[in-house]
Amino acid sequence: MTESAGVSIRSLLKQQGKAMDLRLIAGAGGLDRVIEHPRINTPSLAFAGFLDDLDDCRLQVIGQSELGYLSTRPPEEQRRVLSAMFAKQLAGVVVTRNLAPPPIVIEIAERTHTPLLVTSLHAHEFMSQMMVFLSRKLAPACYQHGVYMDVFGLGVLLIGKSGIGKSEIGLELISRGHRLVADDMVELVRQGPDVIVGHSPESLRYHMEIRGLGVLNIRDMFGAAAITDAKRLRLVIELVSWERAKTFERLPLGDEHYEILGVPMPKVHLPIRPGRSLAILVEVATRNQLMKLRGIDSNKQFMDALDRRIRDGGRKGDA
Description:
Number of strands: 15
CATH architecture of the largest domain: 3-Layer(aba) Sandwich
Helix content: 25-40%
Shape: elongated
Oligomer: single chain
Structural class: alpha/beta
Number of helices: 10
Strand content: 25-35%
């Protein structure tokens, strides 16, 4: 399930109003308008009447230059240009440096229900802070059932059918010194072209459900060192039944991937059966992935060496 991107002006004021000294001065009827893009727009050309590049899904920022230019135009031209701008149903308009917008701007914003805000920050400072906030809030996100762990510094996602033992393996990994990020439901956010970061939903944070024991608070039980709030995803491990594992190649001929939010993630299968130390196998799979990230692929090296011996007719090393 992928979340729809968008931050309403109402939510923006609630989350960043104090931090960025944002105040609403007009257009309260449009507080539910949504910002859909993290980049900020400065509508300088729009004040000269060129509206083709005015993007209504972005936050508009007006500074001293725009207001200074507007004050040089005749009143009828001001009204014509501003009416055309605000008729585009802009997500919101922010005036920087505590500048007082002319009454005509307030009037048209109120009439068109366009949120008009003022901040004490300078334009460059406001835009840089706001783009960081919006980039984080508007990043594509989805939820994945599984257990998410920090193992040897790598984010490792354990997936598999319900009841297969994901949480129990996670608990054993915690007892071996690794850290829990999320249990049962993992929030995954794409923060770059190939970067997926996993978090725990607020309501489930630090908790783990173990059949027969109920819900455990891992932070209280094992201490703060046993949990972490977020980690970049580097490996997906699918736990499968032993019978299903018989259908897989014993020696995989190539790397397998699991696509999340359009990003292919390395994936391995771990067959489940009594007597296997799965926590150790997860550790080994993670160490193997660490080696691959450093350019060392032992499986590929073995297969390449085997191919060379076959080509050589098995002569080397057979004496």
